[in-house]
Structures are given as structure tokens and as C-alpha cells.
């Protein structure tokens, strides 16, 4: 074998050696990798999606005020979530309101927020959705988040999202909306004690006057 043949054989061997790693190139876009020492293909494990499973909201009434209590738990083992701020979204299909719930710490946040349109003073309810205080009286209105008292959907949003059941609480002794008043708000039963007492006293006085008149007439007839 001459020198040229030997040189050609060496070059061919070198080219084969360089081409071998190319056969083991990973097709990352297709999610398939071919092993160097064989034709075995495998698919890498997909990252686990973040979840809000176990998160919840509830509605409670405290001193005539509707509150939404919440507990948000984010499970994200592969750190796929791009957010850490929790929001409660309420919608009736036409309107929508977002209530900030806070920033997650170690994947969790809990607390309470007032129902949209509600207000408190000193811990006591002083405002309710769908009601406005004007001219010394409470009046129903289409504003002030009145739509939230109807059929609504709600979901917790962090990234991901989680649908949760939510409904405005019914009127009870612990969660009374106003029904109209000359001064201030009234309880769900209708009339406040400040107004009721003068009416009772006035009625008693009128009854007493009527009794005096009747007795006087009877005496005159006897004479």
C-alpha cells in the first residue's frame, strides 16, 4: 500500500469519528433524544403545572357587614407560576370587579375583605351593595355594586386560576341591609328603636285624650 492509500484511509477514519457524535444530537424541539450507544428514544419529564387546589372563599356576616374570608394556597413544585399576587374576580357576565387578596408568602395567603359596595365604621356595617343614603333615607340603587347581589361567578387568580362558589348572603339578624329610615339605617325588621318609642308615646297620649273625651260626654248625658 502506497503512502497515498494510507493517507486516504486515515482521513476516512477521522471523518467517521467526527460524524459519530452528530448521530446523537438531541432534537429538543421534538422532545426526543437518541442515545449515543444505541437507538433507544425517550421523552423528558414535563414540568408539573402549578395548582390552586385546596384554596377557598367563604362569606360571613359580622355586625351587619358582609365579609369574604379567603385562604389561597399555591402548589408549584417546578416553579412554573409567574405571579405571587392573589386576586378574587367576581363577574355576572356583564360587570366585573377584582378584589386584591394580598401577596403569597411561601405559597399561601389568608385573610378577609369586605364585599364590594359594603362599608363599615367601628366594625359595624354602614353601607351595602345596591343601597345609597340620600336625603336622610336609605334608597335602593342600581349602582354601588348592586349586581353583585345577583347570580355571579367568582374565581381566584394568581396564575393559574381557580373557580370558587360565591353568593351574597341572605338578610339575617346578623347581616341586615337597610329598608329606609328618617335618620340613619334600620334593622331588617323595619323600624329603629329611636323612632318607635316616640310613636308609642304619642299613641298612648292620643288614647288617653280620647278616654277623657268619652268620659266627659257620658257625664253630660247623665246630667
UniProtKB/TrEMBL annotation:
Residues 1-22 form the signal peptide. The chain crosses the membrane at residues 195-217. Keywords: Membrane, Signal, Transmembrane, Transmembrane helix. This is Cell wall protein. The lineage of its organism: Bacteria, Bacillati, Actinomycetota, Actinomycetes, Micrococcales.
Amino acid at each position: 500500500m502506497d503512502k497515498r492509500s494510507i493517507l486516504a484511509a486515515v482521513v476516512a477514519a477521522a471523518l467517521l469519528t467526527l460524524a459519530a457524535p452528530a448521530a446523537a444530537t438531541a432534537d429538543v424541539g421534538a422532545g426526543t433524544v437518541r442515545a449515543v450507544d444505541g437507538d433507544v428514544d425517550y421523552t423528558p419529564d414535563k414540568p408539573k403545572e402549578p395548582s390552586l387546589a385546596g384554596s377557598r372563599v367563604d362569606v360571613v356576616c359580622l355586625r351587619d357587614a358582609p365579609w369574604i374570608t379567603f385562604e389561597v394556597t399555591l402548589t408549584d413544585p417546578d416553579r412554573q407560576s409567574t405571579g405571587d399576587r392573589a386576586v378574587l374576580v367576581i363577574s355576572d357576565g356583564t360587570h366585573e370587579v377584582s378584589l386584591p387578596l394580598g401577596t403569597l408568602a411561601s405559597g399561601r395567603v389568608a385573610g378577609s375583605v369586605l364585599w364590594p359596595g359594603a362599608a363599615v365604621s367601628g366594625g359595624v356595617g354602614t353601607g351595602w351593595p345596591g343601597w345609597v343614603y340620600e336625603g336622610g333615607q336609605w334608597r335602593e340603587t342600581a349602582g354601588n355594586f348592586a349586581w353583585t347581589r345577583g347570580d355571579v361567578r367568582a374565581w381566584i387568580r394568581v396564575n393559574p386560576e381557580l373557580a370558587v362558589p360565591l353568593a351574597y348572603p341572605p338578610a339575617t339578624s346578623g347581616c341586615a341591609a337597610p329598608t329606609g329610615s328618617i335618620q340613619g339605617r334600620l334593622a331588617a325588621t323595619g323600624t329603629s328603636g329611636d323612632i318607635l318609642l316616640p310613636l308609642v308615646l304619642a299613641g298612648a297620649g292620643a288614647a288617653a285624650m280620647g278616654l277623657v273625651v268619652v268620659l266627659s260626654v257620658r257625664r253630660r248625658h247623665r246630667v
